[in-house]
Amino acid sequence: MSNHLLFENIDEPGLSSIEVYKRRGGYQMAEQALAMARDSIITSLKDSGLRGRGGAGFPTGLKASFIPQGKMDKFLVCNADESEPGTFKDRELMQKNPHSLIEGMIIAAYAVGANKAFIFIRGEYVQQAEILEKAIEEAKAAGYIGENILGRGVELDMWVHRGAGAYICGEETGLLDALEGRRGNPRLKPPFPANQGLYQGPTLINNVETLTAITYILKVGAEAYSAMGVEKSSGTKLISVSGNVRRPGNYEIEMGMTGRDIIYGLAGGIEDDREVLLWFPGGSSSPVLTKDDLDLPYDYDSLAGAKTMLGSGAIIVADDSNSVVDIAVKTASFYKHESCGKCTPCREGTSWTTKMLKRIQSGEATPMDLDVISSVCEQIMGNCLCVLGDAMAMPVASMVTKFRPHFEAHIEEMRVQNEARVLAEIAAQGNVLQGIAAD
Amino acid sequence: MPRPEIEQITFTVDGREVEAPAGTMLADAAKLGDVDIPVFCYEPKLGAPVGACRMCLVEIEGIPKLQTACSTPVRDGMVVDTQNPRVKSAQESVVEFLLLNHPLDCPVCDKGGECPLQDISFGWGRGETRFVEPKRHFQKPVELSPLIAIDRERCILCYRCVRFSQEVSEDYQLILHERGADTFVGTFDGHPYVAPFSGNIMELCPVGALTSQAYRFRARPWDIEQSGSVCTMCPGQCNVSYTVRDDRVVRVLNRQNDAVDDGWLCDRGRFAYQSTYVDERVTGPLVRENGRLVEASWDRALATAAKLIDAAGDRVGALAGGSASNEDGWLLRRLMTEVVGSRDFDSRPAGLLSAGLQAALDAPEAQATVEDLDWAHAVLVLDTEPVDDMPVLDLRLRKGIRRNGVRLAVATSRPSALDPNAELTVRFAPGAGEAFVCALDAAIGGVGDVTGLAAAAGADPEAVEALGRMLREAGDDVIVVWGERLTHIADPERAANAARALLKASGRLGLLDGRTGSGLLQVPSGGNGRGLREIGVLPNVAPGFSEPAKVGRSSREIATATSAGELDVLHLLHVDPVATFPDRALWQSALGKARGVVAHAAFLTEGVAAHADVVFPSEASAEKEGTVTHPDGRLQRLRPAVGKPEGTLPTWQVLSHLITALGGRATALTSMMVTTEITEAVPFYAGITHDEIGGFGVRWQDRDASEDFPAGDTGPFSLDAPVAAASPNGALRLGSFRSVWSSPEVRHAPALKFLAPKQRAELNPDDAADRGIRHGQRVLVTADGTVVSATAHLRTTSPRGSVFLETGLGDESASALQSTEATVPSMVTVESA
């Protein structure tokens, strides 16, 4: 059984209310943190080895240390846009334990000196947004948010802002633009949000899980936290398992558990005892793995070593009843639809790739098209303004490379089918002609 | 924010060591080493780079990913590769991606032959495509506005046009619709994109997606030639490049001169060229015969004019309009002083300032330049509306505020388009500029009583105090952009006192002590107002602001004298005082009484049509030769781009003929000889030649001869500015303005006609409610029995107690109700029609 931190009391009835949360020791860490020096909190975060849980895995303590010192408006933004297909861990956290997020945000805001905090939540999370709004009201009433928190002269205000439904608003700079009321398009970096973020002010942006983890790091101590998991991937990680598994859902694991233990252990194995065809280890934007990769340890570096990524921690499993062609079309279509259109390779590349894949799906392609797809994905990767283009190119390219025989077989099968159909039509026309001739 | 110091650094691009100013973007810096990095979305004029098109990806040593050269500032020792296989592959990829959905209709595309996409595809593309899917389709072309056609299939979504609309002109009309590959450019609600600067997006467009309705299909790049000159329709004097086909101007493009225009043009400057080729234009001399103007030979017209002037002796008055070049003005002056023997000539509609006072205002030490506006700590816009009076200045001010944190204050009577960008706005009563500036001086630390003076100006004393504080505390570099309108007061003492108050306040802020980056910048009411002033086309000022032996009559005095029969002949050089000057009734009477009126005009505007005895055709902007002087002292050269209509003489030659016909010296055989006469007569212009002026002009303040600028003499300053009347018995103060669209060129250019203004009365909604007036309703504005009808236009930002009407609209003009004689603004009543 894994060591639970974030999910420790997750199924406690009424945990979303401040009474139950406080009964479970809630807000003690915030009180403790406000008595600490700001630097020592950041040092704790660095020592804990916590890495951003949103997808990029950037060291959280280091990111917080980039926020400039000095008296000015600074912002803390919680990225709750959770829009990576297959990811639903933040939803559960916000729905069942909103105060742990708020507490983490109070601590993070204090550590970097931010006086205004925003939770940018995806528009579809209506229930979660309402829960958060209520929780913020409770925290304000209890004096944890306000102009003079707990009488310590610390100021923080907090808002929930609902997104209007775009994947790109989960990209941190796109999120900032959307939060400012503009079209959600990613910004050029540098300048990084730490220096010029929201309203051009210093801004710390973190994922829901990352901010929540801060509370627990203070609780167990940086040393104990970093002792969990494996080197360079310390602590626990919330993972969302979905697809053809018996027990899909969110699980909290210690980093380093193998894929097999997750899929066959926690998630109960594959439905109907079928074989794994492929699995996305970190959301639909991660390059896919096959059944041969099941024994990889689930941590940042092991997955990077296998040329994929841990991403948001969303494992999507597809068994051998699926066609890889359909999965590729589905994946590419999603990113084509969500591309903001600002930069050329992503806008044109995702659209082109989708068109080609759909042609393969409907049997109007040749194996040469697979080479063009690989080449187009190659042309997208690393050349875009943000990582959305790569998010399509990486999984699609990995599918075409690892499952080329599947694609070729599909093309051939469709060719034979189409040929038979055309021949049948010609034959039918021939019959008609013969009929006419006979008359 | 002060202008930053920039040091030179050395970096390596494609193996070459190149020196560049630190902080220059790589895309620009590479050019210094003759390395071309292709770009689409990057355009420095638009502000910070966005790195969207990804065309400029390059490899920088030490950075694993390819970087966009447009957004990477060069650093010392940087090593850049723009040629290696990795970069080449990225460049080819982007070109391939951009061409996926681009229709290859170059043979029928207006941009074909001058198209960055063509050039870059040829230079950096693979030359073939692997794309076999259907392309993206849109309805095309559609009207983005009556001036601009948009072809969305050609669009490569660099979104330069959207950035222009959002971040440069700040009209916020253009946006991107939809997302991803479905993205397209349009306006939010599908309304036409009509804005003063909309035409710039066509020049920004790197493909043929935005084309000029007026130029579409008129020429191919190999049919045309470009010819550089300067637009003379307003004091902005933007540098332009005329596109000429078969000796006709078919298009106007910007000719970027950062010291003047930053490479932008207003739509009037861009499309007014069309008025060169309309039937209404005067293309040959006309003479009045039996009450009608009829075509006449040059000999007859010149003889008739000479006879009229000769018969009048020295009882001749002359006016020079703002579009007169220095040469035109100079020869008119010579005609008047040397041949006619009259000093009754003026180049300003109203407001007489002494030579000493004028010299104090125009002193090199007090002069701010247009470029200084980029980096000033604070700018005060005083009694002028840049977007109407000098449009390109509006964009310059927005740029400084947006990019460099310039703090803006606006002090005007009528709400300004810059109000939303201003940290502080102060309103004063129309015509109460003098009292306002006195109050401002007091607020900056002068002797007067701020509260009393502000009340006299109809301004909020607290706002005036706040303005004073802001200007005092902003920093060293403060610039006052002031409208000549401030001194348009008939009483010379009052006009002078307004100027004195301005100088007092400026002096207190340290604007007059020669510091670079601060000072005054006047927006004259005529395009070449400064040049005409400096060469002495004023009744009381000799060339170079020296004192003349004898002082003549000013504009208004000329009108009064002519009405009274004291002057017999009026000589109107590119100006129609009935149409454009205040005191419309007085000028109508003056022109009616005059025994002879000689006019130089491009169009038969109302005063000219009704009263001129001889009309000489004026050149169009593109036909003009000579020099003009920019409001910041930059001499610029006008070069004829096209020939004049057959048989037509340039104005300088007409004036020269008149001088000889009346027995004067024949000295001007070419336009350049006239320029030389001017530079010999104006001490601080000494030695300036056409060559020195060159393509981008030369500021006389930057030359050694500027030491010969005469010392100013401000004269005594008084605080007894007249009190702006309140609104007795429900009467409102009348304020006037002249929109950018009010000119004969706009009325006659087919493309611009739809923008020609109709009279509207701008009212505060509360004042309107008191009178039962609704927005859009017809109203009658009455003063002393004269009635002007207008459409009510309610503006919440309009100050209470005032109504604003436009000038330059014939019988419906504000000038019909206005008199500069009164020292307080005219009072009018407004009622439903």
Task: Explain briefly what this protein structure is.
The complex is a heterodimer of chains A (439) and B (833). With 439 residues, chain A is α/β, with parallel strands linked by helices.
Describe this structure in words.
The complex is a heterodimer of chains A (439) and B (833). Chain A has 17 helices and eleven strands. In chain A, helix 14 runs parallel beside helix 16. In chain A, the strands form three sheets. A five-stranded mixed sheet of chain A has the order 3-4-2-1-5. The longest helix of chain A is centred in the last third of the chain and has 35 residues. In chain A, a hairpin with a 2-residue loop joins strand 6 and strand 7. Chain A has three domains: 210 residues, 3-Layer(aba) Sandwich (Rossmann fold); 91 residues, Roll (Ubiquitin-like (UB roll)), CATH 3.10.20.600; 87 residues, NADH-ubiquinone oxidoreductase 51kDa subunit, iron-sulphur binding domain (de novo design (two linked rop proteins), Up-down Bundle). With 833 residues, chain B is of the alpha/beta class. Chain B folds into five domains: 76 residues, Ubiquitin-like (UB roll) (Roll); 142 residues, Alpha-Beta Plaits; 244 residues, Rossmann fold (3-Layer(aba) Sandwich), CATH 3.40.50; 134 residues, Dimethylsulfoxide Reductase, domain 2 (3-Layer(aba) Sandwich); 105 residues, Barwin-like endoglucanases (Beta Barrel), CATH 2.40.40. Chain B has 26 helices and 34 strands. The model of chain B has no long low-confidence stretch (mean pLDDT 94). At the A-B interface, helix 13, helix 14 and helix 15 of A face helix 2 of B.
